[in-house]
Amino acid sequence: MAELGNPQNTIAVLQKYNFNFQKKFGQNFLIDPRVLEKIIEAADISRDDFVLEIGPGIGTMTQYLCEHAREVAAVEIDKNLIPILTDTLSGYDNVEIIYNDILKVDINRLVQEKNQGNSLKVVANLPYYITTPIIMGLFESHVPIDSITIMVQKEVAERMQAGPGTKDYGALSLAVQYYAKPELVANVPPNCFMPRPNVGSAVIRLTRHNEAQVQTADEKLLFALIRASFNQRRKTLVNGLNNAAGISYTKQQVVKALEKMGLPANVRGEALTLEQFAELSNLLLLYSGGEQIG
User: Fold this and answer.
1) In 10 A of CB 138, how many CB atoms?
2) Dihedral of the CA atoms 95, 111, 49, 134 (nearest 10)?
3) Does residue 270 contact residue 165 with C-beta atoms inside 8 Å?
4) For the purposes of burial, counting CB atoms within 10 Å of the CB of 4, is it exposed (0-12), middle (13-18) or buried (19 or more)?
5) Which end of the chain is more exposed for a tag (fewer CB within 10 A), N or C?
6) pTM for the complete prediction?
7) The pLDDT value given to residue 290
8) Does the domain at residues 219-287 carry the CATH identifier 2.60.120.470?
9) Exposed, middle or buried: residue 235 (CB in 10 Å: 0-12, 13-18, 19+)?
10) Segments in the chain forming alpha helices (H)
11) Which has the closest alpha carbon to 124: 147, 100, 146, 150?
């Protein structure tokens, strides 16, 4: 069985099955064994682990995961890869390929069936257009996750770990940091992929917090405030919230909350930390007698 970390073997498999890359699925297959080994090491995969892989492609990373994990479930959206994955993973009895859209898979049920409800590890090489929905879907569905180790576009990785006041800081930074601790593992140049993407990539590990880092009385409200603050990031926080559909607080209530927090009325959302957004959401709930989104 050919090891797909070797570029020649990847080319041979693609030619054998006359495979055409699907642009709509953002397919770029990793062809650098050193990067593959770094991902396995960063994900800290052991024989006790049940691993969910998103987007196995032709099975390059899957082979590595099968060598290290107890069991692997790999979710692949492109059914044209069925004959290739049947071939490249034929030597492993600890993998199941699920041909579906990851956003439609009941991962909580999968974890119950395959891992007795214990936390799993997620590994993925994600196309740019679907990165945020997948990551947020995993976190918001409260699937028991130990860590998510993913290959993403470099600028997305930078956004995930950005802090207040920086140009990369935004709703994604806050959402990821609410649920997990982001750590950059490696920068990966375009020549490590086939076909070569136009942008650099990065591997980032998101380690799930064991307990909430901030106290919020209403998680939905917290994220509604964060999204509204960054939808028009050049505006002040007060004006951003005032113009946002679905947020019914008055300017006076927002200004009063900011004053209580010791912040000026003209502060912008990009200046607030996660803790400050949580405090703001709690104060607004208090001022409105528990009424939140109109």
Assistant:
1) 23
2) 80
3) yes
4) buried
5) C
6) 0.90
7) 52
8) no
9) middle
10) 7-16, 33-43, 60-68, 82-88, 107-115, 131-140, 154-160, 171-179, 219-231, 237-243, 251-260, 274-287
11) 150
Instruction: Domain 7-208: give its CATH code.
Output: 3.40.50.150
Amino acid identity of 182? P
User: Which amino acid is located at 155 in the chain?
Assistant: E
Between the CA of residue 219 and those of 100, 144, 178, 281, what are the distances in Å? 29, 18, 10, 9
Q: Which stretches of the chain score pLDDT less than 50? A: 291-294
pLDDT for the residue numbered 1: 59
Compute the distance between CA of residue 27 and CA of residue 30 in angstroms, rounded to an integer. 10
Mention every residue, 6+ apart, whose C-beta is less than 8 A from residue 155: 168, 199
Helix (H) or strand (E) run with residue 164 in it: none
The end-to-end CA distance of the chain, in Å, is 59
Instruction: Assess whether the region 7-208 and the region 219-287 belong to the same CATH fold.
Output: no
Neighbours of 22 (CB within 10 A): 12
DSSP state of 196: P
Residues 6+ apart with CB under 8 A from 257: 280, 283, 284, 287
Give every CB contact of residue 126 below 8 A, 6+ residues apart in sequence.
54, 55, 134, 150, 151, 152
Domain ranges of the chain: 7-208, 219-287
Specify the pLDDT at position 11: 85
Helix, strand, coil shares of the chain, percent, nearest 5, are 45, 20, 35
Q: How far apart are CA 178 and CA 105, in angstroms?
A: 24
pLDDT for residue 110:
95
HSE, side-chain direction, 13 A CA sphere, residue 278: 14
